[in-house]
Amino acid sequence: MAAIIIDGKAVAAKVRESAKLRTAVLKEKGIVPCLAVVLVGEDPASLSYVTGKEKALAEAGMLGRDIRLPSATSEAELLSLIETLNADASVHGILVQLPLPKHINEDRVITAIDPVKDVDGFHPVSVGNMVLGRPGFLPCTPHGVLVLLRELAIPLSGAHAVVLGRSNIVGKPLANLLSRRDVNATVTVCHTGTKDLAKYTREADILIAAAGRPGLVTADMIKSGAAVIDVGVNRVSDPRSKKGYRLAGDVDFDGAVEKAGWITPVPGGVGPMTIAMLMQNVVEAAEIYSRSISGD
Length: 296
Known about the structure:
Layout: E1 4-5, H1 8-28, E2 34-40, H2 44-59, E3 63-69, H3 75-87, E4 93-96, H4 106-112, H5 124-132, H6 140-151, E5 160-164, H7 171-178, E6 186-190, H8 197-201, E7 206-209, E8 227-230, E9 234-237, E10 245-248, H9 253-256, E11 262-263, H10 271-294
Parallel strand pairs: 1-11, 2-3, 2-4, 5-6, 5-7, 7-8, 8-11
Antiparallel strand pairs: 9-10
Helix pairs in contact: 1-10, 2-10, 6-7, 6-10
């Protein structure tokens, strides 16, 4: 029996609708949630991501401040811009699109953003709050994965979750979120140094692929009936496509769909959730600002 294909677009639409309703409440108080998106250079993938975020902001009734800088922008200039945005009360969230040009230190840039405006959830303060289970912004993609799993009522408590990948953006945060008491999964993290990878993946009730390697996970590596969440977005050469490439995940979907119990497609699975959770973080940042000025 084929797996249930998880419709990330449908779940994301619910999250975005909630953000839209919360935005309407803030507007009645004279506050319009605003996200400043800073793009340095003209990386095609980054341009595409930024366009998607701007569209989502408009649909939710939020404001987007689109700041595009040439690739030759210095680190000092970018840090100065962030300082200005930090001090701007009309801006509730700041997002610097990654990756940055090689001459700019990403860690310095991320750390320069005021944690109360860190809607990406990458600032060390945000990461610390997440690890300690304190209130704060959660990184969008890992949080989106968790929301997907809960929306589908996939059993989490006591489940064995295997995370492929240990990046700061997806793998590490996901392992943390899944092991929280309110989720209660047992987590194994696998990576490029893991020997006999399939040994671990075959034991997973929930398998999350975030390794950035197309087709890494094949059907024989999946436990029958497992939930398979494919975070990978890889450009694979395809002469039949007008663009010359197609998007593929880290999972061999055609084989896996016959073995898994649930599975996310690429595209249309985790991707829409990332932007939806960003919208949720932006409206939350605006709500925090609203409470701060009202004394609530």
